[in-house]
UniProtKB/TrEMBL annotation:
Protein name as catalogued: Probable 2-phosphosulfolactate phosphatase
Family statement: Belongs to the ComB family.
Entry's EC annotation: 3.1.3.71
Keyword Hydrolase included in the entry's annotation: yes
HAMAP family the UniProt entry points to: ComB
Gene that encodes the chain: comB
Known cofactor(s): Mg(2+)
A GO molecular-function annotation: sulfopyruvate decarboxylase activity
Claim: Magnesium is one of the keywords in the record: yes
PANTHER family: 2-PHOSPHOSULFOLACTATE PHOSPHATASE-RELATED (PTHR37311)
Catalytic activity: (2R)-O-phospho-3-sulfolactate + H2O = (2R)-3-sulfolactate + phosphate
Organism expressing this protein natively: Clostridium saccharobutylicum DSM 13864
Keywords assigned by UniProt, alphabetized: Hydrolase, Magnesium
InterPro entries: ComB-like (IPR005238), ComB-like_sf (IPR036702)
């Protein structure tokens, strides 16, 4: 079993993910939203690349059956019900609803990963559950960091390190590429997460927007046990 990392959506190469088990991470905040919404009882999350596509699909559904969620540049989309804040996706809001979602980085990463054999959704909040599922599947893994506007993102990278560290704690024979090994080293040196993440540019943007509650929530380790899967253009729990 081999584990590799792709550092942003712009660096996805089809040949690297074809027939692989892919794990998509957008810790701040798309994948944290997806995990939270599904854990709170939403039927499914359907990701879209553009606002226009999202609204077009919404027009085909009964208004009481769906929630529009998403952001551009970390700010809520004007026509939408919710932003990209996981704490907004409460049980009484999303239960039995379909969440139609578009974000700057996360949903773009998902839509570019469809050549993979299996696509799982991960964040800090469900990292241990994802690690356990990967060990159970026992096939080569490529962890894809959504990144920020096509660039490397420190927050997604340390989340990758945490998942790898959880896998190694059970099976230390896993093969790691250099970039995957480095992620584990960085995690082990910053297990509190904040000591590393506070240096990230995305963290600074969120702080400037007053998103402190989101930051705190998204850094919580393994508080949710579900593993979402992106399949047939929608995300549901495995």
């Amino acid at each position: 079993m081999k584990v590799d990392i792709i550092i942003s959506a712009d660096d996805i190469i089809e040949s690297k993910i074809e027939d692989k088990i892919v794990v998509v991470i957008d810790m701040f905040r798309a994948t944290s939203v997806i995990v939270t919404a599904l854990n709170n009882g939403c039927k499914e999350v359907v990701p879209y690349l553009t606002i226009e596509e999202t609204l077009e699909h919404a027009g085909k559904l009964n208004r009481q059956d769906y929630i529009l969620g998403g952001e551009r540049r970390a700010v809520k989309i004007e026509e939408f019900d919710l932003s990209n804040s996981p704490i907004e996706y409460k049980k009484n809001v999303v239960e039995n609803k379909t969440v139609l979602m578009t974000t700057t980085n996360g949903t773009r990463t998902l839509t570019k990963s469809t050549n993979a054999k299996t696509i799982l959704i991960a964040a800090m909040i469900n990292a241990k559950a994802v690690a356990e599922k990967l060990l159970e599947i026992n096939e080569d893994v490529v962890i894809i960091n959504a990144g920020t506007n096509g660039n490397f993102s420190m927050d997604d990278y340390i989340c990758s390190g945490y998942i790898i560290n959880e896998m190694l704690s059970v099976n230390n024979k896993i093969q790691l590429t250099d970039i995957a090994r480095t992620a584990n080293i960085i995690y082990e040196a910053n297990t509190d997460i904040i000591s590393y993440v506070k240096e990230a540019s995305h963290y600074s943007v969120m702080k400037s927007l007053g998103l402190d509650e989101d930051i705190e929530y998204c850094m919580k380790k393994s508080i949710i046990d579900i593993v979402p899967e992106y399949k047939d253009k929608k995300i549901t729990c495995l």
